[in-house]
Design a protein that fits this description.
12 helices
Amino acid sequence: MTKTHPAFNIVIIACIAFGSLVVAQAIGLGVATAVYELNIAEIEKILKYPNAQIPHIREIYWIIQGLSLLLGLGGGSFLYQKLVAKTDFKELNKNKNIQTLGLGLATIVFLCGLPIISEIAYWNNQIHFGNFDSKIRALESTAMELTKILTEMNGGVDMLIVLVVIAVIPAFAEEYLFRGLLQTEFLKWFKNGHIAVWLAAIIFSAIHFQFLGFLPRMILGAFLGYLYLWSGNIWYSITGHFVNNGIQVLALYLYQTKQIEQDVTETTRAPLMAVVIGTILLGISLFLFKKKTEFKPQALQEA
């Protein structure tokens, strides 16, 4: 492992991740261009307008989004470990023991957290950002247009593809970067697990540039951070991330195929009783997860 100061490592991680993301997006666009024989005008439309009216726009975005996250965030994290830290992905798992009970509890955490996260999302959406409010809401609208295209599903095959693009790849790539690398460096720096978890969660939420969802995404990032902090194994947070995103994909699929009536893309309040019961069960599941999987990180052992 590198012996440089964690602050320096964080800057290097950020630079490599950003550079890798730019290259990965270019690769994704190049692959989509080759597959669907796009011309210059169509490429310009894709770069300027999320809802560009060109053939196969959904599939094009699947390719760009999937490769951007996998090669950008995941690939950038891999490059940092190999070229700078001189280590590998396995080193993120200081605790090599993966418990079935722990994976189950990680799943339950995110199922039970749905009502309170929904309530926080509603509160966040009511915040007025002063002179920046219209710009922030315009950015959110643009992001929602892109999300609607990415998550348009007409059948089971589409649902599986969207599950890979929206749940599987982000769960692996984002946890690799934000929890595996950034949170670990913050932990080395401050020797305080709570500070490390929340700093990584704040960056995780901010980097999405969707400020109407900043607070719920930050809370989700903190849940993921504590799963990793307490267990010492990144696969628990990857599992939780996948469950969170996968539930949304499944709910969207059921809505689009008219099997349920609730559109999960709408910001609505959960029933108060659901929030109260869900929050209690969330606390219990987090307590049990910590108790069953707790593993003290080396950085805290040395503090």
